[in-house]
Design a protein that fits this description.
Blueprint lengths: L1 H49 L7 E9 L2 E9 L11 E7 L6 H8 L1 H8 L2 E5 L20 H19 L2 E11 L1 H12 L6 E5 L10 H8 L11 H12 L5 E6 L8 H14 L2 E2 L3 E3 L7 E8 L2 E9 L6 E2 L8 E2 L5 H19 L2
Parallel strand pairs: 3-4, 3-5, 5-6, 6-7, 7-11, 12-13
Antiparallel strand pairs: 1-2, 2-4, 8-10, 9-10, 10-11
Length: about 350
């Protein structure tokens, strides 16, 4: 009886072991399958956030080091770009807004599609979420020095790209949306000789505030100095003493509830004063069913130094951008095309004004 019991016990243990082994294998297969599915989801999410935007061309990664630390960037190079020996092409630097990264603004604005057609490069720096949890460029952190540190780091990225790729140093354009627009203007006032045209879409004039609290007020139209001898005006005036500020294009929606349109009209006035430009009569532009835009040029000696474009009905969004993207509204005029046209005019007028 004892032997029989032992055999039965041994048999039960063997059965339990086999059942456990089968269950373990099944669990392992399920875990691996789930892991592959999760890895696929993570990969797709990463590609959606950081991968190449739609369209043909090279999405080349890079990292720049500066006073603010490391910042990643991507350079878009059109597919099939063929250059002659020592030939150089224009570069457009795109600075994203809060809640975005380089890929997001590339997708929204479709600047790469225009670059492929016109044959220029596009640089997309990325803000580090450690530096700003919302992905905003810290253009307003003047008292702490963070704004200047980030500006210097962005210039380091530009220097690196100019060294590695065939960039025409006389045809560099700087553009940004919201916080990116404010940082673009700050860069232009700090390095006026490095850029031949600047475009600020829905931004605040840097220098009007020195902290995040002040930035919120400025976005709502407060703390905007009315005359040139101000924090903004002094910065721009100082730049103008050494060299003429580059031409500036301002785009802003009349229905912007995040950054009120007074910021654009104020900055246009300050920039025009600093560059000695005078306003021409405003004109209205409209194509098809898109919202109309009221355009005011400020000119000096045959050059358009400021172009203020006020877009009727537009909120806090890239005008004419891809409708499926945040901070993008297809009902407005095509800001991407308008910026490039403004830049081309700036290139031409600068060449004509050269001695």
């Amino acid at each position: 009886m004892v032997r029989r019991t032992r055999r039965r016990g041994a048999s039960a243990a063997t059965i339990l072991a086999k059942v456990y082994e089968r269950n373990l294998k099944a669990l392992t297969r399920a875990t691996l399958a789930g892991g592959k599915q999760l890895a696929g989801q993570v990969r797709r999410a990463s590609e959606k956030m950081h991968g190449p935007p739609p369209g043909p061309g090279d999405w080349l990664p890079g990292v720049a080091l500066g006073p603010a630390g490391a910042r990643t960037y991507h350079l878009f190079r059109p597919a099939g770009l063929r250059l002659a020996f020592l030939e150089r092409v224009p570069l457009v630097v795109m600075l994203h807004g809060c809640g975005q990264n380089g890929r997001a603004i590339a997708t929204s604005t479709r600047m790469n599609r225009l670059a492929a057609r016109e044959g220029f490069l596009v640089l997309y720096p990325d803000q580090d979420r450690i530096a700003n949890a919302h992905g905003c460029w810290n253009w307003f952190e003047r008292r702490s020095g963070k704004a200047e540190a980030e500006a210097a780091t962005l210039m380091a990225a530009l220097d690196q790209v100019q060294m590695l790729y065939p960039v025409d140093r006389d045809r560099i354009v700087l553009a940004g949306l919201s916080a990116g627009a404010s940082m673009a203007v700050l860069l232009a006032t700090r390095h006026p000789l490095r850029f031949q045209a600047v475009a600020a879409h829905s931004g605040v004039a840097p220098g009007a505030v020195g902290s995040a609290t002040g930035a919120m007020g400025a976005m709502r139209g407060r703390h905007l100095p009315a005359v040139l001898p101000s924090a903004v005006g002094k910065a721009m005036g100082a730049a103008a003493q050494f060299a003429s500020l580059p031409p500036l294009m301002l785009l802003h929606g009349t229905d912007d509830r995040v950054v009120v349109a007074d910021n654009a009209t104020h900055l246009a006035s300050v920039w025009a004063t600093a560059t000695g430009a005078r306003p021409l009569a405003p004109r209205t532009l409209q194509r098809g069913q898109r919202w109309p835009a009221r355009v005011t040029d400020f000119r000096r000696r045959g050059r358009t130094m400021v172009r203020l474009t006020e877009i009727e009905g537009l909120g806090h969004a890239w005008s004419g951008g891809l409708g499926s993207q945040p901070f993008s509204d297809p009902r407005g005029p095509d800001a991407t095309a308008m910026i490039w046209a403004f830049a081309q005019r700036a290139f031409k007028e600068r060449a004509q004004a050269a001695p």
